[in-house]
Model the fold of this input.
Amino acid sequence: MLSQSYERDCRDSNWRRLVDPAPVGLNVTVFASVKLATHDSAATSAFRTQIQKLTEVLECYVLLGSTDVLLKIVVPDIRYYEDFFYNRLSQLSSVREITSSVVMSDVKIAPALPLDIVK
Done:
């Protein structure tokens, strides 16, 4: 059991605990590559606000290159993702195209930053 002060310190400093999603019923991880319809500041700001409200989205990265945004999504099963995809994610304003990749297995999930490479 973690102490209350440790829990508070973790929250205050943006620490994260690694939790295996499968035992809690989140059996499917999807990486969704999103292309936006427009890149003006109002549209991208609205997209960022909308993404914050989707609890299935664990991580969101804005990228340079052919993909504008990469999302890490966890859901209970593929049927849930299908519903999420069609009825929520693809309905966000300024989304032009989504390409989904479903994770088959985890090869490496590092529990810590590689601080040994920092000078």
Remarks:
- The chain has three helices and four strands.
- The domain at 19-102 is CATH 3.30.70.920 (Alpha-Beta Plaits).
- The chain has one domain: 19-102.
- The first strand starts at residue 28 and ends at 36.
